[in-house]
Amino acid sequence: MMDVSIKIENISKSFGKKKVLNGVTLNVNRGESVVIIGQSGCGKSVLLKHLNRLIRPDSGHIYINDQDIAKMQTEELFAIRRKIGMLFQSAALLDSLTVAQNVGLGLKEGWKYSEKEISEIVGDKLEMVGLSGAENMYPSDLSGGMRKRVGLARSISTNPEILLYDEPTTGLDPITSDLINDLMINLREKLNVTSVAVTHDMTSAYKIAGRIVMLYNGKIEYDGTPGQIKNSGNSIVDQFINGRASGPIQVQ
Amino acid sequence: MTNGFLAIGRRAINFITRLGSTFMLLLKAIYYFKDIPRSLGQIFEQCFFIGNKSLSLIIITSIFIGAVSAWQAAYQFKFIGAPLRYLGAAVGKAIVIELSPVLSALVIAGRVGAGIAAEIGAMKVTEQVDALESMAISPIRYLIMPRLFASALMIPLLTVFSAFVAIGGALLVSVLFVDISHETFLLGVKNSFKIFDLVSGLIKSTVFGLIIGVVGCHEGYHAEGGARGVGRATTEAVVISAVMIFIADYIIATILFKV
Ligand SMILES: Nc1ncnc2c1ncn2[C@@H]1O[C@H](COP(=O)(O)OP(=O)(O)O)[C@@H](O)[C@H]1O
Ligand SMILES: [Mg+2]
Fold it and tell me: Which value does ipTM take for this structure?
């Protein structure tokens, strides 16, 4: 029997008249690494934000460790969110805080750690992402790649059991991208973290994914291992992973 | 024709919905007042921000508010033939009860309310608010409560300060241009002063502080659509606070002062 960590059951979401998700169903097992691919604007970030209820579905259910998060009250929801780390597409560091304060924010506001413990944990996490010594810099002083790494350090500061990555390597140089890939792999292998990553960087997807899922027209179009997806025989999947302008997918 | 009515109706409904959601935000933020002891750092920071942003503006506007009200009052006094020794009484009361609270609040709404909306709006559209949520930190506790509390605390303080400066401005005009001695003027202010006036001024300005804080936070918190959305939120915050300040001023006056 597989231990299911995240269970997405037939969720739909519209913004105004625009139906972004139209019946998405997906299970993620504990310790598994699932990568969601799909065209820009197809709803990958929207889907990811459903997993810690930054967005609520119009219909359907999301279960984290068998608990339905759609109906939860604030306190319960916060308890679940503490188990989930999220790396945002834009890193979303707080501009007014230093790197160290950003990384330690979740710990500080959880009111359980002393200043000294926080600064030790922050130091460890920054070392993991190769940014020791950047503690007192402000987000505005950092390059895009550095921000992503600070964002990653922040998302793992509370040792979450689930990690959500929104385009962790998009816009980074190949070397920094690979460093982030390695970090994600490490987290899974050493800490058995369950992860869901959204990307359209196929190099990264093949490297980090145990399973690749393609989102298309608000639904899961394909679900398989990196080996399977390369020979899927699905023309939509083929067009996307090989990056061709012409094919069944219409570029909007 | 019917279209016009529909459009007006829709706007009215929008406005009422917005007031309702602003009021809900106020209640939620007040609920987090229980976490004030843990948030003293942020509250202090916000108080400093408000003071720092408005002090010089308050000084300049208050001097002129006082000056013009003394000038206008003297003109009216002469016109109806009232004795000028009552000038201090009339001007002092007007400043403490009405002019300083309302005009300081409007000036601060333009400065601080706009600043709050812009800052929170920018955080909203760059996913920083989502980031707080994802870390199980309530943005209402972390961002909004300290701003609301600081504004409810600082605006009465700034109003008292404004009243002193405005009375100074009025005194200056009276002595220099109206030919009243400063003793006469100040005696008038003093004799007419009632603690109740000060209390009513403070009640007003506390309400105005809550309005400026909550409207700025609400508009910023609901900003959408990049830099343009932030700009819109900022303007809306100032306009809505100003309108609300006038409405609240009237309501409070009818409650406090029976005619
Ligand atoms: N808060 C929102 N309000 C309105 N529309 C939204 C919102 N968030 C996302 N969308 C729309 O949903 C669609 C999917 O967006 P997104 O999930 O960000 O795409 P991507 O796959 O590139 O991450 C886009 O068309 C976007 O405009
Ligand atoms: Mg996205």
Answer: 0.93
